[in-house]
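Chain A, query sequence.
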Amino acid sequence: MENPRALLDYVGFTESEVKPLCRQYNMDYEECREWYNGYFFQKTGHVYSPNSIVMAMLSRQYDDYWNQTETYDALRVYC
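Chain A, predicted structure.
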């Protein structure tokens, strides 16, 4: 999503949301940022994939969780 416009607040987790999660789950924020620095929007800064953050916190492991979401072939029918 290159220009979320009115949906900006709903695109993903912001840094201010991810930092406390990292503290709560005893995960290193800098490492998290290296894995999932995601999109950057002028108004909100870095935005992180909610799926990746939740999976990393629950499993206590950084990994490529984005590839466990919907496949491109399944999404293609909506384009």
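The longest helix spans residues 15-24. The mean pLDDT is 81.
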